[in-house]
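Below is the data:
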Amino acid sequence: MFAWKIDLSKAYDRLNWGFIESVLLEVGLPNIFIQLIMQCVSTVRYQICINGELTDPFSPSSGIRQGDPLSRYHFVLCIEKLSHIIVDAVKRKTLEAYQNLSKWS
C-alpha cells in the first residue's frame, strides 16, 4: 500500500517552463503548437497595485497563470509526468518507497 501527500497550493506558480515544454513534446504535439503554447506561457507580464499605485511591469521566470483555460491542462499533464517519474525512480530503486502505517493503527 502506498500513500503520498503533496502540498499543491503553490504548484501553478512553481511549474518550470522547460518541464512544461518537455512534457508537451513527449505527448507528441506538433512543434508549431508547442511554440505557440510556450509563447503564451512565457510572455506574461504582471503589475502590482500598492497603495493605489501600479509597480513597473515584471515578468515571471516560471509558473502558469491561474484562470487561463489551458493552465489546468498543462498542470494535469505535468503532474501526470511527475507521477511517472516517481514510479520509475522507485522501480529503479533510486527512490525508496516509504510506508508508515503506525499512526493509522
